[in-house]
Amino acid sequence: MPEGLPDPGKIWNDFITNPLVQTAATLIVIYVVLLWLGTAYWAFRDMQARSENPILPYFASALIIFFTPLLFLFAVVLYMIVRPRETLAEVYERSLAEESLLAEVEKNELCPVCRERVQSDWLVCPSCRTRLHRVCPSCNRLADPEWPLCAYCGHEFPRAARPPVSAAPRAAERPSELAPEPTGFRSATNP
Ligand SMILES: [Zn+2]
Ligand SMILES: [Zn+2]
């Protein structure tokens, strides 16, 4: 070995026997092992949040453990691909949103004749002129045209005054009569 040229084997040997390097290597190994175990725990909790099956979380962490501290990142990729897409909380939230949407749709009333959307306090369907409600002459609240008496005050509606279904086409011929409907109804009930 010529003088002045460093021996690579000796440098490497000095390096790996250096106590500082050995300590650093030990710490790195401990860290990787902790990361491996922590990832296994994460997979366990993650599967718990995504499945009601009590066995699957153990399978998820076993998958991470099985891939050893050197290769467990491959197991993480594999797990992220096969795990359920939604967490249970997300599934619950989505079903709640769907339910409220359904309730919203049901709340919107439809005209019984033309199926157009109508408001619950409209007297007449603006599309087909069908009578939707009438005003009770006693309490001035909206009553269903089918009711024989007012649900709010008990006022008896005379049978003749109940608007028949055939009133719709007749009303269509004379739209000017539609506007003062409550007044016309009142005069009909009190002849
Ligand atoms: Zn209508
Ligand atoms: Zn009434």
Describe this structure in words.
This protein is mainly alpha-helical and 191 residues long. Helices cover 54% and strands 4% of the residues. It contains 7 helices and 4 strands. A hairpin with a 6-residue loop joins β1 (109-110) and β2. α2 packs parallel to α4 and α3 (56-66) packs antiparallel against α4 (68-82). It starts with 7 loop residues before the first helix and ends with a helix. It binds zinc ion (2 copies). One zinc ion binds next to loops.
Give the SSE map.
Layout: H1 8-17, H2 19-50, H3 56-66, H4 68-82, H5 88-107, E1 109-110, E2 117-118, E3 134-135, E4 142-143, H6 167-173, H7 181-189
Antiparallel strand pairs: 1-2, 3-4
Helix pairs in contact: 2-3, 2-4, 3-4
The protein binds zinc ion (ZN) (2 copies).
List descriptors.
7 helices, 191 residues, binds zinc ion, mainly alpha, two-stranded antiparallel ribbon
Describe the structure concisely.
With 191 residues, the protein is mostly helical. The chain contains seven helices and four strands.
Rg from alpha-carbon coordinates: 40 Å
User: How far do the termini sit from each other?
Assistant: 131 Å
What is the residue-mean pLDDT, rounded to a whole number?
83
Number of strands: 4
Strand content: under 5%
Oligomer: single chain
Coarse morphology = rod-shaped
Number of helices: 7
pLDDT < 50 stretches? 166-191
Order of helices and strands: HHHHHEEEEHH
